[in-house]
Amino acid sequence: MDMRQLSYFLEVAQHASFSKASQAIHLSQPTLSKMVKNLEDELGVVLLDRSTRRVVLTEAGKVVQAHAQTVINASQHLLAAVADLTEMKKGQFTLGLPPVIGASFFPKVIADFHQLYPDITIRIVEEGGKRIEQLLLEGKINLGVVVLPVDERKFEVVPIVERHLNLVLPLTHSLSQRQKVRLTDLKDEPFILFRQEFNLHDRVKEACIREGFEPRVAYESTQWDFIYELICANQGISLLPETICARLDPGKVRVITHVEPGIHWDLAIIRKKGGYISHAAKGWIEFARQVFLA
Q1: Strands 216-221 and 190-194, how do they pair?
Q2: Which domains does the chain have, with CATH numbers?
Q3: What is the radius of gyration, based on Cα positions, of the chain?
Q4: Beta carbons of 265 and 194 less than 8 angstroms apart
Q5: pLDDT of 245-294, one tens digit each?
Q6: Are 139 and 94 contacting, i.e. CB atoms less than 8 angstroms apart?
Q7: Using one digit for the tens of pLDDT, what is the confidence trace for 195-223?
Q8: HSE-up of 36 (CA within 13 Å, CB side)?
Q9: Is there a cis peptide before residue 149, judged by omega within 30 degrees of 0?
Q10: What superkingdom heads the lineage (predicted)?
Q11: What is the pTM of this model?
């Protein structure tokens, strides 16, 4: 049984005539008769009483007519749903966002995307970059935004943002009047870092180690505003993204933009290499890429 057999049978039932049905669907009457007869043979019942001038449905024909119409309608709905997905009318995907990145870059991007595609649902999962990578590998989320680098043997990478980290000091700090600071100047300072599940944690530690020292970590947090308050309370120093630094009160902390060597903070959209990607997710990647690289 195939969809054409059901469709042709419904046409004959609607017109109560093989000749009228054949004209309506532009199919020869012998071919139409054969298709309906094949359906009857496959089902093992007679669907149409052909003994009168008008074709009449048998009891079995009435049952098949009702179910065949349901099947045809379901098929049409299926094709329409697939078309909606491929044409970016509908869809959904799950996006992993570290809180600091999400708050800094993505509210407007997500809002603009939603305005263009109101029936595409983005489910946000807030986690640190390392956890986002793990969730992608486990297939629990579809896309993630993380700080580079990542293992490109495991992930497809679409770079979107190139930034660097700034040094944030208490106003009373001995280095606060400088215009430029070297990382080695900070070797004895208490550092306040994002927690280890955040890629920023590793970026800072690795940069310091390359300069010959391991930073002394006084506090760790998942929240940039708590890190900021600790700096205000003279509990240590930190290296933070410039997007966060733009939110800090210059009357409470000193931000130094020239740190040598610079610590890059480059962002990318990543997904599991070789994994399935929906049309909605693919469209969002391209939309975000155009926004950030414009």
Answers
A1: parallel
A2: 3-83 (1.10.10.10), 88-294 (3.40.190.290)
A3: 32
A4: no
A5: 988 999 999 999 999 999 988 899 999 998 888 888 888 999 999 998 86
A6: no
A7: 988 888 999 999 999 999 999 999 999 88
A8: 28
A9: yes
A10: Bacteria
A11: 0.66
Q: Are 161 and 292 contacting, i.e. CB atoms less than 8 angstroms apart?
A: yes
Give the pairing type, strands 258-260 and 180-182.
parallel
Q: Which two tokens stand for residue 252?
A: 């409470």
Q: Which residue has the tokens 């099947």?
A: 71
Burial class (CB in 10 A: 0-12, 13-18, 19+), 187: middle
C-alpha to C-alpha distance for 271 and 136, rounded to whole angstroms: 6
Please state, in angstroms and rounded to a whole number, the distance separating the CA atoms of residues 107 and 28: 59
Residue 14 Cα distances to 38, 61, 65, 72, angstroms:
19, 12, 9, 14
At 9, the amino acid letter reads F
Alpha-carbon distance of 184 to 54, in angstroms, equals 97
End-to-end alpha carbon distance in the chain:
53
Angle (nearest 5°) at CA 73 between 69 and 77: 170
104 CB neighbour count, 10 Å cutoff? 19
Cα separations in angstroms, 168 against 105, 142, 148, 182, 246: 20, 35, 22, 13, 11
Q: Which tokens in the block code for residue 127?
A: 């986690």
